[in-house]
Prior knowledge:
97 residues, Phosphatidylinositol N-acetylglucosaminyltransferase subunit H conserved domain-containing protein, 3-stranded antiparallel β-sheet, alpha+beta, 1 helix, PIGH-H_dom, PIG-H, 6 strands
Amino acid sequence: ESVIVLPALGLQFETHRGYPPMPLFAHRRFVPLASLQDFIINEGLWGWNVRYYLAAIHYSQQDTLSLRVAYENLLPRFPVILEVYRGVHEMLNRHCS
């Protein structure tokens, strides 16, 4: 799974299934920069544990706010999430400045 920042365009979320040398399929979801409201670290409860996850808040085609969760299958630990969060914000801030 990956989050790709496309400067001046938006964010692309990718999930690849299969073995690395021969993936079976790739699923890509794109969030245009014009509809992106924020990229956040959120927390959710999983059993008795608190799990952190990355999400893009954006307007959907129906003009309602939606969450697009990054790494929804991997659910990496907080240090990894924080590093990705900082990198995405750095790239987005470079473009907006």
